[in-house]
């Protein structure tokens, strides 16, 4: 689970960096990268939910 949380944090940092580039600097490609990052975050967060539920049942 620790590894999963590290992946989530790393992906969130990527999203934050890219979305800041889009908003502050107007870099359009950063918008695409930040949207891609949100899709990856969605997958990771679903996995976290699954693992978390399994851990709580123990």
TrEMBL record:
Ranges in coiled-coil conformation: none
Entries under Pfam families matching the protein: Hc1
GO molecular function: DNA binding; structural constituent of chromatin
Superkingdom of origin organism: Bacteria
Function: Might have a role analogous to that of eukaryotic histone proteins.
Protein family per UniProt: Belongs to the histone H1/H5 family. HCT subfamily.
The protein's name: Histone H1-like protein Hc1
